[in-house]
Design a protein that fits this description.
Layout lengths: L1 H31 L1 H10 L3 H8 L7 H17 L2 H35 L2 H4 L17 H4 L7 H10 L5 H17 L14 H25 L11 H14 L9 H14 L3 H10 L8 H12 L6 H20 L5 H6 L4 H4 L2 H10 L6 H12 L1
Length: about 375
């Protein structure tokens, strides 16, 4: 249906362009076509008569002369305007007439592809249909028992809350159900990123990734990232985001959301190097989540690869991530001051001083942000 509406939009734009070009052509004729000028003088305004009766011996203002010219132009264009506007009217009329049929046709096409997957859903093909084709559908009476409906899973995932480890465990199981539900959405054409199937596969994998990433964070709690592996929940998150990568062009989720959660999934899986590399490769993305930058600080704090100088450079880099987190409103200063992931930073006096300077109190945020903005100017 988006294609149908898109074609309508393009036709309207083409008709508008035709109208504009036609208007300009008529205007150009007013100055270059002698026959048009003669016709205007005869049918619109008798210029000679006007001059003799109104202007001889008098001095008309420039505004008056412009008014006469514009009046002549309007009269000349008026005869051609209906013809040009008719193009737009015909495009709209054709779309309005064809839309109901196209809508039904598109829905039946989508429905037919889902019916082919009835076996995977363990239901009869008669039980697979699109709500859009049933004007009398009522969720209260017909939509309660649809455990295999991938769209109900998406709706539930969108409203799911996580506050405890019990919630996290349930969310992890649910995210796995979302990944299984991808089998209930047709593959479609993988080359066509505008297809509804492509979008919903991206939505299911992204929802699964989002839920399992958050669940992994809750389960890890205040433990250090060096103790994150093995973590089954984070493993599910990594798998979900690896699936989402194939559907990223669907834009089911904003890219900053995808990057931040993918980095977190790597971090909670104990993949320190991979997480920091992913963050570095996507440094151009504007991620405004303070917890993301705090996580980068923690990742830098537990980095242990390469030479001592290389490790120290990562520890120093962590202080800049901490300041970015604070500027974005990070409020977990008390936790950060005692978190085990930052112990290594505290062993270097110079870097520890930078970290302490970065972790200013939240009530100073507005003041320091203003000072920083003024310094940049």
């Amino acid at each position: 249906m988006l294609k149908v509406v898109g074609e309508y939009h393009e036709k309207i734009k083409a008709a508008q362009t035709s109208y504009d070009l036609g208007f300009r052509q008529i205007q150009a004729k007013l100055f270059s076509d002698a026959e048009m000028r003669e016709k205007m003088l005869q049918t619109s305004v008798d210029a000679e008569s006007y001059y003799l009766s109104n202007m001889e011996g008098k001095r008309k203002s420039e505004y008056a002369l412009q008014g006469v010219t514009r009046s002549m132009k309007r009269r000349a264009v008026a005869g051609h305007r209906p013809e040009l506007e008719a193009k737009i009217d015909s495009v709209h009329s054709e779309f309005a007439t064809e839309y109901p049929r196209k809508y039904q046709e598109a829905c039946r096409t989508i429905e037919s592809k889902f019916k082919q997957l009835a076996g995977k859903m363990e239901v009869s093909q008669l039980a697979v249909w699109m709500i859009s084709l049933r004007s009398n559908f009522n969720w209260a009476s017909e939509g309660q028992d649809r455990p295999k409906d991938p769209f109900r899973l998406i709706s539930t995932a969108r409203k799911m809350k996580m506050e405890s480890t019990g919630d996290a465990k349930a969310a992890h199981e649910f995210s796995r159900e979302c990944l299984k539900a991808m089998e209930h959405v047709p593959m479609g054409d993988p080359r066509d990123t505008s297809e509804v199937f492509f979008y919903y596969r991206g939505l299911l994998s992204g929802r699964a990734g989002t839920l399992s990433t958050k669940a992994a964070a809750i389960q890890l709690g205040s433990e250090g990232l060096d103790r994150a592996f093995p973590n089954a929940t984070a493993g599910t998150a990594l798998y979900a985001w690896s699936l989402y990568k194939a559907y990223e062009k669907s834009a089911a989720f904003p890219r900053p959301h995808y990057i931040a959660n993918n980095v977190a999934a790597n971090a909670y899986s104990g993949k320190i190097q991979e997480a920091l590399k992913l963050a570095r490769d996507n440094a151009g993305e504007r991620i405004e989540d303070p917890n993301y930058w705090y996580l980068l600080t923690r990742l830098c704090g537990v980095y242990k690869y390469g030479s001592p100088a290389n490790i120290e450079s990562y520890l120093d880099q962590g202080t800049y991530h901490m300041r970015e987190a604070m500027l974005l409103g990070f409020a977990g200063v008390d936790e950060a001051k005692i978190h085990p992931d930052l112990d290594k930073i505290r062993k270097y006096p110079n870097i520890a001083a930078k970290l302490n300077n970065a972790m200013f109190e939240p009530n100073n945020l507005f003041k320091l942000t203003k000072l920083s903005s003024a310094a940049k100017k």
